[in-house]
Amino acid sequence: MLLYEGKAKRVFNTETDGVYRIEYKDEVTAGNGEKHDFLTGKGRLNNLISADIFEYMAAHGIDSHFVERISETEQLVRAVDIIPLEVVVRNFAAGSIVKRLGLASHQPLDPPLVEFFYKNDDLGDPILTDDHVLMLGLATTEEIKALKAAALKINSVLSRMMAEMELSLIDFKIEFGKGQDGNIVLADEISPDTCRIVDMETKENFDKDVYRNSTGSLLDTYTAFYNKMEAIK
Ligand code: C5P
Q1: Quick check: CB of 95 below 6 Å from ligand 1?
Q2: pLDDT over 90 (residue 180)
């Protein structure tokens, strides 16, 4: 049974209690739906990449909702209720923070910065302070602390993986869910849709910015990223 349909994924119930099936779609959007396309093969790439990243995370001590990839476009995950928070970690300034705070593009942010955004399309995903998160009842003080610590740990592991691929992790967005046991776990997806990644040397983008800024082929870029991942396995 279809439980949820988002811009890039569908989530289904399965016959196994506590397990969902996620189907990655061939759809791509940017600017909260302003740009919208169907790209045959995009769902496959995101599914393959996201599964590999979750497996890399698990091998480096980071638990997630990921259970197993069951086809080119589908994976099984633990059933969680997604917390409507987009947790963004930034190692270098790019994207919305450059516009919001007038920072120089690619200026290092040391220590890395963690930001919360409200996952709400109607409101345009506004940035939230910790007090907003508390006021909206999205997380407790302890949970906010745990989310930030988890986000920074994920940043360390993901940055190391990218470095092995001779890439630099500029920033990324993650989401967390609450399992049936009440524990908070990394969920959703991690892929070039949700990260900004550039070549260490050439600074060429290996992420969705090529689609957002119409600077290249998304499918070619994601294929090149996937090949780099395969090469470090
Ligand atoms: O747009 P902004 O600069 O805040 O994005 C920061 C990071 O979060 C980028 O890597 C972007 O791909 C990711 N992001 C996302 N989904 C959103 C907003 C941002 O994956 N809705």
Answers
A1: yes
A2: no
